[in-house]
Amino acid sequence: MAQNDAFNNACSQLISKDDLTVPDEVQKLLKEQDVAVYIDKKLNANFKIYADHAIYLTRMTPLFRYLGFEIIDGISYTVMIDDKEIFVNRFNLEVQDNDQLIRSQQNITDTLTQALQNTIAIESKLFSLIYLENLSLRQIRLLQAFIEYITQSVATMSQMMIEQTLCKYHTITKLIIDFFITKFDPTLKKRNDTLQSYEKELLEAIKEVPYITDDQVLKLLYELLKHTQRTNYFFERETIALKIDTASFKGHLKGLQPNIESFVYSEKLCGIHLRMSRVSRGGLRHSERYDDYRQEIKSLMITQEGKNSIIVPDGAKGGFVIREDIKELSKERFTAYYSLFIHNLLDLIDNRTDGKIVHDERIVAYDGEDSYFVVAADKGTANMSDVANAIAVERGYWLGDAFASGGSQGYSHKELGITAKGAFKSTERFFIEKGIDFYIDPITVVGIGSMNGDVFGNGMLLSQSFRLLGAISHKEIFIDPDPIGMVSFTERQRLFMSKNGSWSDYNPALISKGGGVFLRSAKSIELSPQIQKMLSTTLKSMSGEELGRALLSMQVDLLFNGGVGTYVKSSEESNLDIGDKQNEAIRIDATELRAYAVCEGGNLGFTQKARIEFAKGGGKINVDGIDNSAGVNISDHEVNLKIILNSIWHK
């Protein structure tokens, strides 16, 4: 007790009369919010944090460090304001340039306040540019958007590498921001001369950079800005959207690339939409590939390009990731994220009224007219088409209910089972060659997917003769070593119609002896004699991942991919080439595949090299764009019909 009293007495001697006096501006702020940040103008490196709750040093130290400051010392105490106890933290900081601190103090206090209110996260040295160059929080978000896009599109560039370069050459970073604002600020009158001046100054500054890696980073950022055609940055949304002329920028990217793309960035939502031309079509998906979602969407767009070739000019694909716990995500919260993504995509598109292009005055466009933009449902967004169409109608977008296919006013892919029907119609030929009619004759099947999925669920109900021996879903493995035709078919039908169509809901009493439902994540699964016989193995146990690989490589008539992910690569490819880390541990080589034929209702189940390797080895397989083109066809016809009907209705 005596030691505590001595400590408190020592602290009280460090607190001056000025410390106990709360500035009027702080008192005013505390009536509206629970935290206020104050920089003493007499002692520029003296920060005071006022809050209605205690804030500990462990919370403050990383924030100041990311903002570019080091704490010399600090003290905590309380004051009373209107009979309310207010906690105060006073910090004395090491500051290199007091004048610069004065210039940037408003942006610093705004950022710190939001961080302490937990509305933003300060987790990188990029935030030191707020102090070094008086950047606003929104300008930091813009830099983060650039970094996110580059790390998604250029495999050799890491976030840390780019951030270090931008902080090291912070004056050049400020020029990059100025160049962007000059290029897209809709209020500027004399834009061209100023833009040319900034561009010249920026290029001259980059020439002086001595290190090749830093030079590459800065040049790439400049090229990205140069080929950015539109932005909604000046809409003051929480998100930032960029429209990029990838056709011109693709010299910096590897492999096949889109020609037009829209990129959407915020702290918790990132998304991409890729088009091969202005008249392109394809769905929007919810992706869980946080590290390489652009690669996933790009691969799907390339597939879509093939599927669209006989329907509409070109293919498109879009997708988004949500950086918060998906398990805790409510339907309402997911819908809010999806809606945000849709709004940002439409921000970058022109409208059409009475046959004339209508251009948003807040957009400075460098790409001419662009008014045709349609989307469709995809993985994770099957029930979102009505939401998208409601947004289009609310915004007065000219396509109205034709904006998104598959809604309540369109064709229900799940009810029609169109994608699965098309896939099996394509695969049917392989079995006819063997004199087998799989709608009558039993065939053994291993599947990828679960009964709650549109493609897999519909596919497994197309024939009562499918003997489904096993299936691999996102989290579970289903095994039925000796299925009874009508019994298993009826149970699959029940699952498909139920709210929970996962394999764990399959009636265990209806699974043949030795079978069951297992977790992919299981460390060890005991193999029954029936499973051992089915897999032709003497092993008594396997992990969930090993069991999944064994299922994929077992001898069956048909491997049906109705799920999501890449499960088969070529023997010449490494998993690093694929990108789909979620399924890496369960993936097999095409040379290990012993199925007679493959039916691909889903996308990207095989790499292109795997498909070729399997076919060269005698396996029967189509290009995936053929197998799952029926769903695309019906969507495109729906959009065209709606456009015609809407035009008639309005007349």
Explain what this protein looks like in three dimensions:
There is one protein chain. The chain is an alpha/beta fold. The strands form seven sheets. Strands 5, 6, 7, 8, 9, 10 and 11 form a seven-stranded mixed β-sheet that branches. Strands 19-18-17-16-22-25 form a six-stranded mixed β-sheet. β5 (228-231) and β6 form a beta hairpin. The termini are far apart. The model has no long low-confidence stretch (mean pLDDT 90).
State Rg: 29 Å
* Amino- and carboxy-terminal Cα gap: 86 Å
Shape field: globular
| Uncertain segments | none
Structural class: alpha/beta
Write the layout of secondary structure elements.
Blueprint (H helix, E strand, L loop, with lengths): L1 H13 L2 H4 L3 H7 L4 E5 L6 E6 L5 H10 L3 E12 L2 E11 L3 H19 L12 H5 L3 H17 L5 H10 L1 H15 L6 H17 L4 H15 L1 E4 L8 E5 L1 H4 L10 E6 L3 E7 L4 E2 L2 E3 L6 H16 L5 E9 L8 H17 L3 E3 L2 E3 L16 E2 L8 H11 L8 E2 L7 H4 L1 H15 L10 E6 L5 H6 L6 E7 L3 E4 L5 H13 L18 E4 L5 E2 L2 H7 L5 E2 L1 H9 L5 E4 L6 E2 L5 H4 L9 E2 L7 E4 L7 H9 L7 H4 L1 H22 L1
Parallel strand pairs: 9-11, 10-11, 14-15, 16-17, 16-22, 22-25, 23-24
Antiparallel strand pairs: 1-2, 2-4, 3-4, 5-6, 6-7, 7-8, 8-11, 12-13, 17-18, 18-19, 20-21
Helix pairs in contact: 9-10, 9-11, 10-11, 14-15, 17-25
